[in-house]
Design a protein that fits this description.
7 helices; Jelly Rolls; alpha+beta; four-stranded antiparallel sheet; single chain
Length: 266
């Protein structure tokens, strides 16, 4: 087999595969061919803390796995209106999305730490509803209540209005746990904004949500002339059973209990 394939050969491989596939969706098959010809790198999950075995490594998940997505998208105009009101009345309430404590190693986050280039208006933070902020977005909170968010005290869920200023780059990074997936609901998206997960890059489209695995390396750009604003939240990975979800919550609680206990066990 040759080390490289010219574009015409890749097109021929895809055509042959699609002919055999029939009417089924070709996205995974196209990725297979692109990996085969060396044009699409393979990315793996690299969670910072929790890695639950057996969960498929999927960059952008199939919408069919999330039956609540259409209703969530239907709420986008009301959610956008609440965000616009917040930004018009008090844009100063945005916190830096990246906010490490003094002395913490910053690595790739040095340029964004404590910066207003990437702002956040937190509605739910580390499993705690931010009451004052949430009161300013009741329609948004109602839409979030219909989602299967992972309620783990002190850890999750999260829900945040994310505002990325023009000419700002969010560097490649990975998330904490593959037991959850991340939802983006684009609300205000000027031209020139894009988002990469693994080997796939997409543009946000206002009102069109997507679900992705943030334990696969991802990054974002706003190369436009105006801020980009989206709602970010998390949901349970749909491949986890109810029993497994309860077990994940129990393990997280046990970890926190061990962390609170004296080192000598007394």
């Amino acid at each position: 087999m040759p080390d490289t394939f010219p574009p015409a050969a890749e097109a021929a491989l895809k055509a042959a595969a699609r002919a055999a596939l029939g009417d089924a969706s070709p996205e995974r098959l196209d990725a297979f061919v692109e990996r085969l010809v060396g044009r699409r790198p393979v990315y793996h999950q690299a969670p910072q803390q929790f890695h639950y075995p057996g969960l498929a490594e999927v960059e952008f998940h199939d919408r069919a796995a999330f039956p609540w997505l259409p209703a969530f998208e239907a709420a986008a105009p009301a959610i956008r209106a609440e965000l616009e009101s917040i930004l018009a009345e008090d844009a100063g309430d945005l916190a830096p999305y990246v906010d490490f404590p003094p002395g913490a190693p910053l690595g790739p986050w040095a340029a964004l730490n404590g910066s207003d280039r990437w702002g956040a208006f937190h509605l739910i933070f580390d499993g705690r509803i931010v009451r004052w902020n949430a009161a300013r977005a009741p329609r948004t909170m109602a839409a979030l209540e219909a989602l299967p968010q992972p309620w783990i005290p002190g850890r999750s869920p999260m829900a945040t209005f994310s505002v990325l200023q023009p000419h700002t780059h969010i560097p490649p990074h990975t998330g904490v746990a593959n037991t959850r997936l991340i939802v983006h609901l684009p609300l205000i998206v000027p031209p020139g904004c894009r988002f990469r997960v693994g080997a796939e890059t997409r543009e946000w489209r206002e009102g069109e949500a997507f679900v992705f695995d943030d334990t696969i390396e991802h990054e974002a750009w706003n190369d436009g002339a105006a801020p980009r604003s989206i709602l970010i939240c998390d949901v349970w990975h749909p491949a986890l059973s109810d029993a497994e979800r309860r077990a994940v919550v129990a393990v997280a609680a046990a970890i926190d209990e061990v962390a609170r206990s004296p080192a000598d066990g007394t």
